Amino acid sequence: MDYLSQVIKSQRARKSLSVINILGLSVCISAALLILLYVRFELSYDSFHDGDRIYRVESRLYEGKVLTDNWATTSLGHGPVMSREIPGIEKFVRLTAQDREQVVTYQDKQFAEERYCFTEPAFFELFNFPIKRGEKTGQLVRPNTVVLTESAAHRYFGEAEPLGKILTFRTATAEQHFEVTGIIDRMPANSHLHYDFLLSYSTIPKERQDIWYVHGVYTYVRLEPGKNPQEIADAFAAISDKYKTAALKHKDWRVELIPLREIHLTPQKSYEKETKGSRTAVYILSVMAVALLLIGWVNALNLMVARFLERGKEFGVRKAFGASRKQILFQGLLEAGIVNSLAALIALGWLEVLLPVVNSLATYDFGENALLQPEFWVTVSGIIVLGTLFTGLYPSYLLTRIRPSDIMRGKLLHSRKGNRMRKALIVVQFVASFILITGTFVVIAQVRYMQNETASAAMRQIVVLKYPSFTDELSAKMESFKKHLKQKTYIRQVTVSGAVPGVEVANYFTNRPYGSDQSEVKLIQMFAVDYDYLSTYSPDMVCGRGFSEEYGDELNKVVLNEEAVRLLGFPSNEAALGRQLTMEVVEEPLQVIGVARNYHQQSLAVPYKPIIFFIKERVPFIGTPYISIRMDGTADAARLAEIEQAYRDFFPTSLFSYFYLDDFNRNQYQEDRNFGWMFAGSALLAVFVACLGLWTVTLFSTLSRVKEIGIRKVLGAGRVNLFVVLTRELLLLTVVASVIGIPASAFLMNNWLEGYAFHIVLPWWSYAVAFVLLMCIAFGTVARQVWRIIRLKPMYILRSE
Amino acid sequence: MIKTEKLSMLFTTEDVQTKALNEVSLEIKKGEFVAIMGPSGCGKSTLLNILGTLDSSTSGKYYFEGKEIDKMSESQLTSFRKGNIGFVFQNFNLIDELTVFENVELPLVYLNGKKADRKKKVMEVLDRMNIAHRAGHFPQQLSGGQQQRVAIARAVVTDCNLILADEPTGNLDSTNGVEVMELLSELNRQGTTIVIVTHSQRDAKYAHRVIHLLDGKIVSEDRNNISIK
């Protein structure tokens, strides 16, 4: 009890110091905990399956040694053939990888759904998504059956019994009915699979179930115990020639088996919709969490040492009167323990506030129930214990080791040995702050640049509707719908297309100049458009012309962009005009009638890609999900209501959904903006921690220089002069940190910018601003302490000596 | 040179008021060597600090060469001290991070003297104090006696009129103590007014006049048989 009252007394005596100590440490602990929660979440992906022997089979296509295509999918044929011909595969399951939206209807309930796939009964054997309602076995065997999640069931059936009900799925080209046979829980946030509807694979027409032509399914296999995945991959390479389609003849066709639990942290590949995590990011963040804790502890340790040394006399007296080492050690540890526990408690409060914010930014709930997990509390307790030992042992050890008389004379306070270490720490923290501040500027500048580059005045005038779902005479109705819209005075153009700016065209098909060798084929994105697309979005034509109904037969004509001209090996844009192409799914040759200037079809992160525009009727199975409507002026609510009414009149069974191209364009940089926020947040944290460290070091250096200041005052030094004497070093530290920080930041940010095909040059002003900002923050931090010392009467200073 | 009228100093803590000085009136003439004596806590150091303008009295008046000091602001006092008053402390109060030369030079820096002039003056004073050979050393490398000579050099380097010394021999052995007192005595003979606070009868013998303080009051005054120059 006596010890405790002493601790309380000593904390009270220097209230502001205690507050800063505890608050600073709490911020570091909460940031570290937040990071650890995130890291734990990222590492926990797909850990709820019994998945030690489960792998995803992914396709790798090589030309010679060069990896040309890196897909997360395989063809529909891989699974059955590999399982049949390669020994060691116990079980396989396929999940279709299409990403076309379907409109799902049950009576008057209608929603657009993307989270569905066709899959096989083995799904429930490989993955741990237990059936909550319905038969435990035999699910998805019958054609036209569906297993859905509880939340999806609730969406359509409310409280009513979902089993046995029929859901209607519609795309632009088909309509199918599915009977609900089972209900599962929502797939957890830390699953790389997120489906609301599992449709039976047997619904797919028999002849298309195992085709090799499309790489359109994710194939998962469970290997027999002890089987090496590399053997399976090698075995496939050995048999792959047998199954190659014409397009693949000149390619080396391989597979790679990725362990289920590692899927989330492997790099993003084509045909992967899930946003993947990054292993590097997880490593960097783990190091950051430990570094934050260490920095927090070192700062707390410094403050603790400063406090103990300030109270050196008290300890000297205690020792002189016979306090044992154990007692002093105990007192030190008790004090550190209380400081650490309080800091951890406040940190939990911060976490409570921060978690919802972070979750909403990250759009998933990685902290879900995390605070209730025992391992979380073990971590918190571990941090408290380690922190107590870290911050309590050394100062008390220091006081037990030295002679009471030395403490009483305040000898320790004047030792500036430890200061070098502290200054190094400050420089490190300042460098980190500098890098993060400049980084924030660079990220913001890049995001602004990308937004401005892709935005155009026309975008504000364009509203995009989703293509209606399947109905009788859809294309005829679509034509009348377009005509109807064009009659409205405020509508300039209406166009139907396979993509709009901001959407990847995809639809890769092989093309080669007509008459050239088969080995000349190139995979190029085929952009299905109608006659009005090019004039609506008006990419500049470099030469030739766009499509026009006036010419009559345009079906066998194509427009290339400059990149496609380059890839196909034409010597110039003009040389490409009039030339013919062979496209894999079209028998007649296609003639080039124009070349469009390269433009940003996707975000500026992506380089210009080869694109071939063609009239959509030429290859009708390539979908055209977008209807763009360009208006005079902006689309206000009244106009939109009119358009919606027309849509409903023409397509009563379809779901009306739309977006403004302008918003869409802005949204595609949401990830980058989030990254900017993260940077800004980390910069704030780094600056805070650095200030804390700086505050402590200043406390030390001013304490150890009080005598000097006193003497200087006695000898007639003015206040300005003393301020300079006390802060000269700070200026130097800031300069040193900036000098180290500039090349480091330039290197890191250049690397980051390299990830964008189109990017800004590093803005030099960000360094100047960061320097001035750091300087102001640094001086702001120490000003009060320095001023306090300067204002002390010399008499008091020297007397306390 | 110095005149005080009913100087009082009150220290107030939460519940105790201590009168460190109680209506002290005294006069010190130019060229005088005065020693203030008395038991611990009688207010000698407080008096010395007020005379040195390092502290101000709670009430009473303090005139320095006719000017009323207690009316001055902190910054006025700072510039007044410069060049007028030199200090010598029991624990020397040298700055450990500066060399002997730099320590002695410091008051001249604050007087904005030219660099060349400063150097000349500092070397001259160090020479006088017989410590010039140690100019490049740091205080910690010197003996106590040497450190105190550096402190005295620092006090006189501005050619000030008044030196205030708070137990200047308190931390020295007797040989070094005598040496320091001889130095102060010599400075006094050259015209500098000196006021010291001391416990030592031997030191007091160097003074023209000894003022005895008890409980913040002057209780008696002795005169030694030394003539004032």
TrEMBL record, chain A:
Which segments constitute the ABC3 transporter permease C-terminal domain?
287-403, 683-794
> In this protein, which residues make up the domain named MacB-like periplasmic core?
18-238, 437-640
Q: Where is it localised?
A: Cell membrane
Q: Which membrane topology term applies here?
A: Multi-pass membrane protein
Q: Sorted alphabetically, which keywords does the UniProt record give?
A: Cell membrane, Membrane, Transmembrane, Transmembrane helix
List the Pfam families hit by this protein, alphabetically: FtsX, MacB_PCD
What's the superkingdom here? Bacteria
Q: Which family is this protein grouped under?
A: Belongs to the ABC-4 integral membrane protein family.
Q: Supply the PANTHER family for this chain.
A: ABC TRANSPORTER PERMEASE YTRF (PTHR30572:SF4), MEMBRANE COMPONENT OF TRANSPORTER-RELATED (PTHR30572)
What is the name of this protein? ABC transport system permease protein
UniProtKB/TrEMBL annotation, chain B:
Q: Name one Pfam family in it.
A: ABC_tran
ABC transporter domain location is: 2-228
GO terms assigned for molecular function? ATP binding
* Alphabetical keyword list: ATP-binding, Nucleotide-binding, Translocase, Transport
What SMART domains does the database record attribute to this sequence? Answer: AAA
Which InterPro entries does UniProt cross-reference here? AAA+_ATPase, ABC_transporter-like_ATP-bd, ABC_transporter-like_CS, MacB-like_ATP-bd, P-loop_NTPase
The protein's matches in Gene3D superfamilies, at most eight in alphabetical order, are given as:
P-loop containing nucleotide triphosphate hydrolases (3.40.50.300)
Family membership noted in the UniProt record: Belongs to the ABC transporter superfamily.
The name under which this protein is listed is: ABC transport system ATP-binding protein
Q: Which organism is it from?
A: Parabacteroides faecis
